[in-house]
Amino acid sequence: MTEAKTVEPSTFLHVYEEIPSITAPTLGNIGPVTIATSTVTVMFITILLVVLCMFASRAKLIPSKFQHILEIFYEMVTDFITSIVGDKERAGKIVPYVGALMLYLIVANLLPMFPTIGSFYVLINGEHIPLFRGATTDFNTTFGLALAVIVTMQIVGVREQGALNYLSHFIQIKQVVKGFKKSFGEGMTSIVGFFVGLIEIVSEFAKILSLSLRLFGNMFAHEVLTVILLGAFSVAVPAIWMGMGLLVGVVQSIVFVALVTVYYSLVLKKEGNGH
Q: What are the DSSP E strand ranges found in the chain?
């Protein structure tokens, strides 16, 4: 008499996968220095794809279909930025930087969701480690992007307004001296402005954290919820959730770019202003 084999229902309806950690899996080290993680591989692929898009989009006498697509994307980004800053001329200064950033983020957010991308693993020290993981699910990536954005804004501010004029927004010693020359009341008011300027310095650092944490938190949360849903259902529900993931990736790219556009517009030279 043969024993009846018991089949756990979870083997059909469930998919078991470890909850992703906040720290991206390490693929290689040189001593104590990490040289590659599973998010870095996706980041390099994203950069490669963006560079290929740049070369493929070079203006031709007879535009290709791909060039048409990129021109439509450019017009959409331009209209979007214009709706934020309210001036097409100012938007034209912002589009090259913000447009490239949006293209990078869309590719970086959506690339890991393509079929079979998540099925590549490498064996390191007897452990199977995913080769590709969403770049923006790693806080190091989003923090680096946010830091680069804020540093760029300072450079643009100095270039547009001049070093002294731009820095005077943060360290308002000149305004305090002028205030006390006019009257005691205006001098005291200028002191308040001086401390507000110091707070502005803190706000610049806060922008780095807010930009990086918002993007990282949403993308990492989606990755974790995807694994949880796979653990509960392996039919239909994950596919619907992955569709939602495409929407999340695009929306988070737009939100990040919208904030950067606002920061960029604030450091541009004001029209009709001497500085």
A: 26-30, 33-37, 121-124, 127-130
The reported pLDDT for the residue numbered 168 is 75
pLDDT at 88 over 80: yes
CB atoms closer than 10 angstroms to residue 142: 27
d(CA 161, CA 37): 40
Domain ranges in the chain are 10-267
8 Å CB contact between 229 and 81: no
